[in-house]
């Protein structure tokens, strides 16, 4: 699970201050299936909800928290029901092998944990272009921030490895994501599914260095060579100046320009998709079951890449 936030407001304060949710939480902590691990990207209030972490730790006594460097001390002090050994803080590019699922003796309480899961999971902490602050003016950038790669390798050699990338909060630059691509490229098979932020980009004079806009989010998906991407960090808390649904509209425009697929079925609870870059409604489930169409692979790794990249940069200039 990534950056679990269940509060109605994201704020330094306990109750009435700070941006309010524009959509309700689709489920409670108690309704979640058993959780193996939590990855935390950074300590901003729209990503780190102390109460949610306490509730999750209480219901999942074996849950592990993979967190940025120097966040552990704060968590040990503030998260009840967890021991210090459950928090693992990591530096950029550091890799840690997560204890295989079956060795944790997890008992499913609601039959939603797949019984066939076995294998190993490598957790890699990755850089992002962002910053951190929690409570006071003197803890700016005291704790690290970043994204994660999760590479699952099944025990059966006949099954393929799978890699998920979670970007956290990030601005765009044209070097960092190419290094992330290299980290997960062959022989590891590349990134299968990426979660990339598309919101909180306005105004650009303030946000460009710390939050990618939808155009840059598509560029991130291209740079990291993700087979499928899902837009996140929009439509929940209004922490910036763009209209609440604009990130999805702009994502659609960027993908049309790049001649890549966009697909959203807000009224459909479950659907299969072979889409390049999607968004999902709150509480919606989408399943990636197909390999990307050949055109996607051509765009990402073939000769068309430069052509499409120049289109995107041209549109950026015109803006
Ligand atoms: Zn942030
Ligand atoms: Zn954020």
Q: Biggest β-sheet, characterized?
A: 8 strands, mixed
If classified by CATH, what would the architecture be? 4-Layer Sandwich
Count of helical regions: 8
Record field, number of beta strands? 13
Q: Indicate the low-confidence ranges by residue numbers.
A: 111-116, 264-273, 292-319
N-to-C terminal Cα separation, in Å? 36 Å
**CATH fold annotation:** Metallo-beta-lactamase, Chain A
What's the CATH first level?
Answer: Alpha Beta
Number of domains: 1
Question: Which molecules are bound in this entry?
Answer: zinc ion
Whole-number radius of gyration?
19 Å
Overall structural class, as computed from helix and strand content, comes to alpha/beta
* Percent strand: 15-25%
Helix content: 10-25%
Give the full name of the CATH homologous superfamily. Ribonuclease Z/Hydroxyacylglutathione hydrolase-like
The string of secondary-structure elements, in order, is EHEHEEEEEHEHHEHEEEEHH
> What is the average of the pLDDT values?
83
Description:
- With 319 residues, the protein is of the alpha/beta class.
- The chain is built from 8 helices and 13 strands.
- The strands form 3 sheets. It has an 8-stranded mixed sheet. A 3-stranded parallel sheet has the order 1-2-3, with helices on one face.
- Helix 5 (214-224) packs across helix 6.
- The longest helix is centred in the C-terminal third of the chain and has 15 residues, at 304-318.
- It is globular and about 50 Å long.
- It starts with 36 loop residues before the first strand and ends with a helix.
- Residues 111-116, 264-273 and 292-319 have low confidence and may be disordered.
- One zinc ion is lined by residues 44, 46-47, 169, 200, 233.
